[in-house]
Design goal:
alpha/beta, Rossmann fold, Methionyl-tRNA Fmet Formyltransferase, Chain A, domain 2, 2 domains, seven-stranded mixed sheet, six-stranded antiparallel sheet, 8 helices, methionyl-tRNA formyltransferase activity, transferase, EC 2.1.2.9
């Protein structure tokens, strides 16, 4: 049986964003593994000046003398990567490309992916946001063998994580990434040593989530149709992008009709109002939206007027919304 402490496993790592970096850091520092290279997305234009900017994974790799490779969804480049790195194990998290079957099947110890849901529920691109949106009480981390189909691989390990009423896409993601960093190394060693028997997913129970589920269009609040509880979950699920938003329609007298607001932090409070759903008003120095439930209002604690900086409810009332308080 292989002793990873004396004979570390050669890993080719695939990822792009900050959560990929946190997991890469852990594996890179773990003497049981040898990161032979990383595959990440190509440099992309960023900011107003559209300056070509490398992914966070690429930045980390360069600083730590790890070779970087770009595949750009080209099967020939995937073959080239295998020739260069000859990995014994491939590890992938938040990479964003569908991998060729020959690439997935190449390593001695297979290819492993980390997905933030309790599979087979919420296969796809936005499982954390979807779990919050749907009011789930828990989500988790699925460590699985990769397949050419979307998140359908056999499961090596699932760890469950409760979703708190205060959790946002960011806070929950940070907890899942942190937990992954702590358990992935040991899970990989157990797999390599033959101590894990992969479990097939129950595909009949599969659900899917797509990037369009949290598109800018779908982030618009429909005050007439959406229940207040769902709207509050939208706010938590859709930060830092695209942010739940609304165009004010019932505030002509205050001179703010037509203004677009992004709601960044909110809470539901008890109230008693006959205002039309989606009307912005002030009560007890709190900035409130009426909902389709006359006894529940949405308090807006942090917000952003389109094109401006983030502000608190009081800052808004002192400026753009000052007439609401009169």
């Amino acid at each position: 049986m292989r002793n990873l402490c004396t004979h570390p496993v050669d890993i080719l790592f695939l990822g792009s964003n900050w959560q990929s970096v946190e997991v890469l850091k852990t594996l890179h520092r773990d003497t049981r593994f040898n990161i032979v290279g990383v595959i990440t997305t190509v440099d992309k234009p960023f900011g107003r000046k559209q300056i070509l900017t490398p992914s966070l994974v690429k930045e980390y790799a360069r600083k730590n003398s790890i070779e970087v490779f770009h595949t750009e969804k080209d099967s020939r480049k995937y073959r080239e990567a295998l020739d260069i790195f000859k990995p014994e194990l491939i590890v992938c998290i938040a990479f964003g490309e569908i991998l060729p079957e020959f690439f997935i099947n190449y390593p001695k110890y297979s290819s492993v992916n980390v997905h933030f849901s309790i599979l087979p529920k919420y296969r796809g691109a936005v499982p954390i946001q979807k779990a919050i949106l749907e009011g789930e009480e828990e989500t988790g981390i699925s460590i699985m063998l990769m397949s050419e189909k979307l998140d359908e691989g056999d499961l090596l390990k699932i760890l469950k994580e409760p979703i708190l009423k205060s959790d946002t896409n960011l806070s929950l993601r940070e907890k899942l990434v942190n937990r992954t960093s702590h358990i992935l190394g040991n899970t990989l060693e157990e797999w390599i040593r033959g101590e894990i028997v992969p479990v097939k997913q129950e595909s009949s129970k599969a659900t899917y989530c797509w990037q369009r589920d949290i598109s800018k269009k779908n982030a618009e609040i429909d005050w007439d149709k959406m229940q207040p509880e769902y709207i509050e979950r939208m706010v938590r699920a859709m930060i830092p992008w695209p942010d739940a938003w609304t165009a004010l329609k019932n505030n002509r007298e205050e001179g703010i009709e037509g203004i677009t607001l992004q709601i960044l932090e909110a809470e539901l409070i008890n109230c008693n109002t006959k205002l039309k759903p989606g009307t912005l008003f002030v009560s007890s120095n709190q900035l409130l939206f009426s909902t389709n439930n006359s006894k529940i209002c949405l308090r807006t604690k942090k917000l952003k007027v389109a094109g401006r900086k983030e502000m608190t409810e009081q800052s808004f009332l002192n400026g753009t919304g000052r007439r609401l308080a009169t």
